[in-house]
Amino acid sequence: SFFGMVPIGYMIWTPTIMFRRFEWDAMQVGLTYGSILLLFSTSGVYAGGRFADWLTKRGHKDASVRTALYAFLLAAPFAVAAPIMPGSTGFTIMLAVGSFFFGTVQSLPGLSLQLIAPNQFRAQIIALYFVAGNLMAMGIAPTLIAVISDYVLQDKGNIALALSIVCAVVLPISAILMGCALKFYRQSMDNAKSWS
User: Fold this and answer.
1) pTM of the model
2) Which end of the chain is more exposed for a tag (fewer CB within 10 A), N or C?
3) Cα–chain-centroid distance for residue 135?
4) pLDDT tier at 196, thresholds 50, 70, 90
5) Which one, of 118, 78, 124, lies nearest residue 101 by Cα?
């Protein structure tokens, strides 16, 4: 759920970046970003599930968590670079690739939790995860980016650099946390076998 600050930060601030930096109108912003989310994020969701299945068939008990880890690492260069690209074409390409990897992660938390939670608690555990994740991502990310722009960079118009900074900090930390979780997730998968 820490990772969630990145895609939510993008969803909140990308239109503002398109308006301010590239002077696009609302129609151009909506068509471009809407198409990116529809095509790239959606295909990323599908690819994340397929890749987790592929890893599972190869014996990785931690396939869903491992897939998320890889997605964090692959998203990082695109997420950091996109907001600070000098031109709209580079920005759009980086945004599309980053959105694909953001989408890759979206289906994995529910899957990961279902595989390790006792049957009678699955719905409650997943609900708690999504409440905590949404509070963190939607409550902190947009405000944090604005605070960095206004008070750290001291430039209310530099949302793009603030978004890039948040991505440069959050994605590596997310990857480290996910890497640390692999061992414990495998242990939880072993424990879950006794609940069936």
Assistant:
1) 0.93
2) C
3) 15
4) low
5) 78
